[in-house]
């Protein structure tokens, strides 16, 4: 444990820069993790581009990773041991350099660490973590869906239907799987290219609508024909997808006798926005709701994630493992930003970074 390489954002909007970082020391409830698997997420490039995220600089980005425990905080000596295999999500309120994920040794708080057995691949775990935290925050804490039951023994929600728009995004696949495991009836969308993967995540979906239909009216009609919906989650969250989903909701509301407001829960944070005809869009930073709820957080990191990954009840998205270590990340984020990644998660091993 002699040196630690990190990928920094030196100042707001500046290009990424490789450099040496201090090896963090764990506080009582923290672990230092030798980080061998970083999964890349859209937030990783958004944070470099936008001023909407209040972080201090130099900043080390990244939100999901996996590896082995290197050092254990004094209060965790009975819970963790050196070389335990773990996956972790970054707690969003933490932005100390040691907590950045794009580095070889990362400081993690026990609250957001899942212990893995030897059967679980570290790449699979880091690829799964960010979407699971967000979906639990969105579908359970914010939207009020039940928790899923991995044994499928208590699923009582079939009469309730959820539309997951953008089911071929990482977030959408996870939301569709989660809702299915919690017993809801799921309608989702995909491009034809990713349809098989969406079916793998959510084999019980009653419909997987092609969201690449070139005529918007036909897409809206297809969504309407599978409705009405008790819950709506737009995993893409762009103005264009909000508009498509809102048009479908308006048509459904016109044909129903209910006059209550319909909420489109969106992956784009920004609070609540009133659209036309009693439809509202609501978007939050969903991991925050998991961080705030100790019971849900413990269930997620101590039960659902480790048990679901071991039993393979939690599906893993297609993964592209890219060589080159931390130095490859800026180019990969450019690919993501340009829309060049479809239906897969990019994963990097920081220990493949060339020394300099
Ligand atoms: N608010 C939160 O807490 C939160 C949490 C996590 C993620 N997010 C946000 O949620 C969004 C999705 O994240 P992610 O990790 O799931 O991204 P991702 O896996 O990289 O999403 C890429 C996929 O989205 C689909 N897609 C892109 N544009 C689309 C469109 N116009 N209509 C339908 N599908 C489209 C594509 O599927 P096809 O190729 O099959 O069309 C593509 O495979 C990002 O903007 C991310 O920042 C928000």
What does this structure look like?
Residues 27-117 form the Alcohol dehydrogenase-like N-terminal domain. This is Alcohol dehydrogenase-like N-terminal domain-containing protein. Belongs to the zinc-containing alcohol dehydrogenase family. This protein is α/β, with parallel strands linked by helices and 356 residues long. The chain has 2 domains: 5-121 and 316-352, Alpha-Beta Complex (Quinone Oxidoreductase, Chain A, domain 1), CATH 3.90.180; 135-287, NAD(P)-binding Rossmann-like Domain (Rossmann fold), CATH 3.40.50.720. It is built from 9 helices and 17 strands. It has helices spanning 42-49, 122-142, 170-181, 195-201, 216-226, 239-255, 287-292, 294-311, 329-337; strands spanning 5-9, 17-20, 30-39, 59-60, 64-72, 85-89, 105-109, 113-116, 161-165, 185-190, 207-210, 231-234, 262-266, 271-274, 279-283, 319-322, 345-348. The strands form 3 sheets. Strands 3, 5, 6, 7, 8, 16 and 17 form a 7-stranded mixed sheet that branches. The protein has a 7-stranded mixed sheet with strand order 11-10-9-12-13-15-14, with helices on both faces. Strand 12, helix 6 and strand 13 (262-266) form a beta-alpha-beta unit. It is globular, with a radius of gyration of 20 Å. Bound molecules: NADP nicotinamide-adenine-dinucleotide phosphate. The site of NADP nicotinamide-adenine-dinucleotide phosphate (NAP) has 29 residues, from helix 1, helix 3 and helix 6.
Keywords:
single chain, 356 residues, alpha/beta, Quinone Oxidoreductase, Chain A, domain 1, Rossmann fold, 2 domains, seven-stranded mixed sheet, 9 helices, 24% strand, globular, binds NADP nicotinamide-adenine-dinucleotide phosphate
